[in-house]
Write a structure and sequence with these properties.
Chain lengths: 410, 294
């Protein structure tokens, strides 16, 4: 900032530097850590679904071991995606008004429909058509409560004749094809919720939806890599290296595109240096140094780019164990980097005043609705749901309708 | 295994005319047409329900959700506020009156506030036209301002700017509200229905002027309503009523009073809007402000 700015408010509330509008001088930003989790979890859904679509639509059969795992991952995270948003509302009991009396110019209202469409019309149906044959089989062979559950999941449709299965497969394929643009739409809309805010120079940006879509793909694929490796480790199985190498290849190229687009965004910001650039520059240097420069750029992008790039160039020379380690650490770093990116957008966009004359400091509380505990709980919830789903739908003890049980395909 | 014959009603005419081999007959319980038909019908149902509720909400917006008295016709008024910053003395009575009149919660919550701008003289030989810009607003300016932090002889310009909802023609807050709880009234006021607001805070993020806040009491968004409960009963907004310097000017463009101060303000001043580059087209216009005011 060219002008040195002081504010008498600083004497009273040391959490502010410079001048902030009086309504902005609250204890914590309006959208805090819960709204950081919301785009993060939604992004993981979109990415995991794209991973599954590679098998179904683009027929990358080498990824077959992670097909169902990816779909279940997407489903578990999708169930939890709106929870942070819901908990954050001033009146959560009125949340259904977003669907019942939507205001159609609002990105948040349309997100409600896109979410419902994606959950009910795409993912749930695709899973059901994919699993229907297995449900029939398992309901006949599994005793007790689990058997009853499988019988319920069949919804009374027990036809396993060849034409019925062919129809299942065809509808599943169609849903997958429809699912790809839907996944893009889902997360593009999350990006648009921020990108549409022209009042905020960090958010109001046409590239925002595309940046969100690409980072969603990257984080979702990384999550599938992690889930697959952890699951095989828990089950004491051997990692299918062809599958893992292909996942890492996809992850690498997605990360390259993501880095290019985010780089383009920053180059444009620096070059055009519009109103608000000085305060954004200050934020990047001071307030967001650890989450942006260290977390997002170095650890979350450059290190995985180097590791995965090395694997693409010299895969055959790297021993299997090291390949696995490199894949695992890249995926983990990418997950952390994308979380840091969501933090930088959501919290970064609110720690400077819209007067562009001052900055705020955000210290996350431990307990409380918007604290560490709640965030950790909400982030663990989809993993807990996924664990139950894996027990139910990916168990090695269950007979498979399509061959011997594998790690990813039940 | 030969699958059973399809049930009678599910058999289409075409299937009856050209019977397929038994092996290729459709499965017994589902036909694609039937399933898609049901799916389509339920989707149409969901969207129809949503559309009906939207229509109802639109009617509600016009008729119910304000503090106006019965019989008030918003289409017969066009309320405007203007601010003559040249006249503001920074006494803070307007901010205080607003808090009391509208039961604005204690703490950093303001429907209107006053900012003090101090532009210092440039240092000798610096080659700059003006010096530093110092902005402050202690407690929303409610209790006036302390002595300037720089010596009087170092001040090039110093002035006060009252701030309030800019009542934008293209309000970003109205645009982004997911349920339509905040809306443009036909008389120029931008209002919030507190019984409808879900408290998501999107409007607060979208307002470029920092005029909205999430009330810790009602857990809904709040902002200046031009004292809608007063103006619809023929009174002036509390801040206008109390301003001793007549820096805030208020009027009805559709029913101008004799010697209307608002008309005089427009005639006598060249006016500015805040952050005009955002295209929000504020209806609150300012006279006597500086390029540093945002």
């Amino acid at each position: 900032m060219t002008n040195e700015i002081t504010n008498i408010v600083v004497e009273v509330m040391p959490r502010f530097e410079g001048y902030v509008y009086p309504n902005e001088a609250t204890f914590q930003p309006l959208w805090s850590v819960l709204i950081v989790l919301y785009p993060y979890i939604t992004g993981l859904v979109a990415g995991a679904f794209i991973m599954a679509s590679l098998v179904r639509v683009f027929r990358v059969h080498v990824l077959e071991p992670v097909y169902r795992l990816s779909l279940l991952t997407a489903f578990a995270f999708l169930l939890c995606a709106p929870l942070p948003l819901l908990f954050h509302l001033g009146h959560p009991e009125r949340c259904l008004e977003v669907m019942m009396t939507p205001h159609l110019t609002s990105p948040m209202a349309i997100f409600g429909f896109v979410y419902a469409w994606y959950l009910m019309a795409v993912l749930l149906l695709e899973l059901w058509f994919d699993y229907r044959h297995d449900f029939v089989l398992w309901s006949n062979t599994t005793p007790g409560f689990k058997g009853l559950l499988y019988r319920l999941f069949t919804v009374g449709v027990t036809d396993t004749s060849a034409p019925a299965l062919a129809l299942d497969h065809k509808i599943g394929h169609i849903l997958s094809v429809v699912g790809i643009p839907s996944a893009f739409l889902l997360h593009g809309y999350v990006g648009f919720i921020f990108g549409s805010v022209k009042a905020n120079p960090l958010w109001g940006n046409v590239l925002m939806p595309i940046i969100f879509i690409m980072s969603a793909m990257v984080s979702g694929i990384a999550l599938c890599v992690l889930n697959y490796m952890v699951l095989t480790w828990i089950r004491r199985r051997v990692v299918d290296m062809k599958c893992l190498d292909t996942m890492c290849m996809v992850l690498f190229y997605a990360l390259v595109v993501d880095t290019a687009i985010e780089g383009l965004d920053w180059i444009h910001r620096i070059y055009s240096a519009e109103e608000g650039f000085q305060v954004i520059q200050y934020m990047a240097r001071e307030k967001l140094f650890y989450t942006l420069s260290v977390g997002q750029v170095c650890l979350g992008t450059l290190v995985p780019l180097m590791l995965l790039g090395l694997l693409q160039l010299a895969r055959r020379r790297v021993p299997e164990l090291w390949r696995r380690r490199m894949c695992f650490s890249s995926a983990l770093l990418i997950m952390i980097g994308v979380l840091a990116m969501r933090w930088n957008v959501v919290i970064g966009g609110q720690t400077f005043s819209k007067s562009l004359r001052g900055v705020m400091t955000y210290k996350m509380e431990f307990a409380g609705l918007e604290g560490w505990y709640m965030a950790a709980l909400l982030l663990s919830l989809p993993f807990a749901i996924l664990t139950i789903m894996i027990k139910l739908f990916l168990s090695e003890k269950l007979p498979s309708a399509e061959g011997p049980p594998a790690t990813g395909r039940g | 295994m030969i699958p059973p014959e399809p049930a009678g009603p599910m058999k289409t005419t075409r299937e009856q005319q050209t019977p397929k081999p038994v092996e290729q007959a459709p499965c017994s319980q589902f036909s694609r047409r039937n399933a898609l038909g049901k799916l389509g019908a339920s989707l149409v149902g969901v969207f129809a329900a949503a559309a009906a509720r939207t229509a109802k909400a639109a009617v509600q917006q016009l008729l119910v959700s304000s503090s106006a008295p019965k019989g008030y016709d918003p289409t017969k008024h066009s309320w405007r506020m203007a601010v003559d910053a040249n006249k503001c003395i920074g006494c803070g009575l307007c901010a205080e009156a607003c808090k009391k009149e509208n039961h604005v919660p204690e703490g950093p919550y303001y429907r209107t506030w006053i900012e003090r701008y101090i532009i210092t003289r440039p240092k000798a030989g610096s080659g700059e036209a003006r010096g530093e810009v110092l902005v402050d607003c202690p407690n929303g300016g409610m209790h006036g301002f302390p002595e300037p932090p720089v010596a009087k002889e170092d001040i090039l310009h110093s002035f006060f700017v009252p701030k309030l909802c800019n009542l934008c023609e293209h309000s970003p807050c109205v645009q982004v509200c997911p349920v339509g709880a905040t809306f443009d009234a036909p008389d120029g006021a931008v209002l919030i229905d507190p019984k409808y607001c879900i408290g998501c805070g999107f409007c607060i993020q979208a307002c470029p002027y920092g005029c909205r806040f999430l009330s810790p009491v009602t857990k809904t968004a709040e902002k200046c309503t031009l004292c809608y409960h007063r103006i619809t009963r023929g009174l002036k907004p509390a801040c206008v009523e109390i301003c001793p310097a007549e820096a805030r000017v208020f009027g009805d463009l559709k029913n101008p009073a004799p010697n209307d101060p608002l008309q005089a303000f427009y005639e006598n001043n060249r006016v500015q809007a805040l952050k005009p580059h955002l295209g929000t087209e504020p209806r609150v216009l300012y006279a006597g402000i500086d390029k540093e005011v945002r």
